Amino acid sequence: MKKICITVGVLLSLLRSGHAQSIEKPAYEARKLSIQEVNLVSGYYNQNGNNSAVTGGIGSEQLTDFAQSIDLVLKSTSRLNRQHTLAFDLNIDHYTSA
User: Fold this and answer.
1) Domain covering 24-97 in this structure, CATH number
2) Which of 51, 65, 82, 92 could pair with 78 as two cysteines, CB 3.0-4.6 Å apart?
3) Torsions phi, psi of 14, nearest 5?
4) What are the pLDDT tens digits along the chain (98 aa)?
5) pTM summary value
6) C-alpha distances out from residue 28 to 2, 21, 31, 66, 78, Å
7) Going edge to edge, which strands form the sheet with 34-47?
8) Closest CA to 42 of 60, 23, 65
């Protein structure tokens, strides 16, 4: 009887003290991205002329180029104080030629 009581006591103490993970602090901490830089770039080019080399000087060299660009740079800092950067770039270019 004494052996059974000691065995049950040891097993209960092992179950109480043995933890695989602590619940105090989660392993993953969410970190927010912050906007580091936003660039809005616009460009316009216009050319007009009547001396086309392809047609021997007959015709038009009129062309137009309109461009828009948005650059977005996001940053985040890790637990080890390393900086991570995400860069997004969106370009729209409208080009017309004679």
Assistant:
1) 3.30.160.150
2) 82
3) -65, -40
4) 777 778 877 777 766 665 555 566 666 677 788 888 999 999 999 888 766 566 666 667 778 899 999 999 999 888 788 889 999 999 999 988 76
5) 0.51
6) 47, 13, 9, 46, 11
7) 34-47, 63-77, 83-97
8) 65
Question: What does residue 62 show for φ and ψ, rounded to 5 degrees?
Answer: -70, 130
Please give the single-letter amino acid code of residue 46. N
Backbone torsions φ then ψ of 61, nearest 5 degrees: -110, 25
- The beta-strand segments (E) located in 5-82 are 34-47, 63-77
Helices (H), 1-98: 2-17
CA-based torsion, 6, 12, 16, 19: positive or negative: positive
Tokens representing residue 79 in the block: 């637990």
Contacts of 74 (CB under 8 A, 6+ apart): 33, 34, 35, 36, 85, 86, 87, 88
- φ and ψ of 77, to 5 deg: -115, 130
